[in-house]
Design brief:
Number of strands: 0
Strand content: under 5%
Radius of gyration: 22 Å
Helix content: 55-70%
Distance between the termini: 48 Å
Number of domains: 1
Largest sheet: none
Length: about 80
């Protein structure tokens, strides 16, 4: 496991400390989890963009053309 020395503004440190305490985890665990979530989000975005770049828009249009026209269910209008 690697070690990292990190300087944070006191206000951010205070928030981290409070949230970690509320969650019942250490500050290290909280920060590790937050960084992991950010990495996951970035990798997911990268994956989706790569898949979208390979999409055949003509085929997508053909598929969507076969979807029947229906009114939305109550509550789904927006």
């Amino acid at each position: 496991m690697g070690a990292l020395s990190l300087r944070l503004p006191e206000s951010i440190h205070r928030h981290i400390r409070e949230i970690a305490k509320q969650e019942g985890v250490s500050i290290n665990q909280f920060i590790s989890s937050a960084v992991s979530e950010k990495i996951s989000a970035l990798l997911t975005e990268e994956y989706i963009n790569a898949r979208a770049a390979r999409a055949d828009l003509e085929k997508v249009e053909q598929i969507l053309a076969n979807v029947p026209e229906r009114h939305p269910l109550a509550g789904d209008e927006l």
